[in-house]
Amino acid sequence: MGTHVIKMPDIGEGIAEVELSVWHVKVGDMVVEDQVLADVMTDKAMVDIPSPVHGKVIALGGQPGEVMAVGSVLISIEVEGAGNVKESAQPAPVKEVPVAAPKVEAVVESKPVAAPAPKAAVCQGPMVARAADERPLASPAVRKHALDLGIQLRLVRGTGPAGRVLHEDLDAYLAQGQSNASAPVAAAYAQRTDEQQIPVIGMRRKIAQRMQDATQRAAHFSYVEEIDVTAVEELRAHLNEKHGATRGKLTLLPFLVRAMVVALRDFPQMNARYDDEAQVITRLGAVHVGVATQSDVGLMVPVVRHAEARSLWDSATEIARLANAARNGKASRDELSGSTITLTSLGALGGIVSTPVLNLPEVAIVGVNKIVERPMVIKGQIVIRKMMNLSSSFDHRVVDGMDAALFIQAIRGLLEQPATLFVD
Known about the structure:
Blueprint: E1 2-7, E2 17-23, E3 30-31, E4 36-41, E5 46-50, E6 55-60, E7 67-69, E8 73-79, H1 85-88, E9 95-97, H2 140-149, H3 167-175, H4 182-187, H5 202-217, E10 220-228, H6 230-247, H7 253-264, E11 272-275, E12 280-283, E13 289-291, E14 293-295, E15 298-300, E16 303-304, H8 312-327, E17 341-345, E18 364-378, E19 381-395, H9 401-416
Parallel strand pairs: 13-17, 17-18
Antiparallel strand pairs: 1-8, 2-4, 2-7, 3-6, 4-5, 5-9, 6-8, 10-19, 11-12, 13-16, 14-15, 18-19
Helix pairs in contact: 7-8, 7-9
């Protein structure tokens, strides 16, 4: 018998160290070739580390949450024969599992999200009692779905990472039927004294680091403007009715992307990256729009590249493709990085006002709040209009307040007179 040592591989891009996120094996386990041993986190993605050999795990080189240098011992495996430690020290092949790039997003969550639990740690049963003030982990889409179904989310047991409630959990809860519905309600009033320690590791640590870095380094200021989106919503409905069956349905996002692209022609300083160490601002002609996407594994920001060259339907198709790939964990590393300006929206949960945090090194982020119908006075008459706020943030080191206001006003004008979106 011999020992095969696997060292932390060089994943590329000049990365000198990575964070060990999750072990998928333990000491004493038998493993086979290509079996995933661990997940490690780089600055851009989660990466699987597979086994190059068959054998028995005899030692683990670190604990989840530990930052390990490239080349350090990751795991030791007992193998048949003499083993070959010298060859095993070579980087093992890695398989990228694209998850959320550590993008800074405008959404500020009320509680830290737990690190992903090992895949085997699945909660049993669809229902659970939580304290009245305990906020269960769930994506905005799941919360909206639960609201539509009339389900109290705190009564649903989550089977996702760290107990996150998934869409399937809502289905399982409903499948319980009304006969069982009263059981968790009674339990919900029981006193609780339990506590849970949740280590901030993996993607949550990366997001925390980037958020803290952004707020410490950039001089944030936010600007909020109210927009009448009645006309653009009417246009969207008309286009969907006429072309939806053949070209696909349009959401508001492609119109927002188009408005940003057109407005950036007059305000190129918003489509820029600022290297504060080198004191250099790089303005880009290409508009690569990062579109925030919520998934069950966390926040992702896939990038719609060259939005300036895309039609409404082209943008809509690309946004949908990237969002689906991100939610399914199939987006590539390139698809999750390289944005020049970010668009963030919580859709129906968008609230009235938000204060987005910049995605460094970008200098502007446009935040979308929900659409509501309100009475407005137009030409002396009270009429019902569809209104929406844009809550956007800028880096005051690079962007002057007047320019930021004019940029958002330009977007407002384009959306309120949507024909101008297509006038060159």
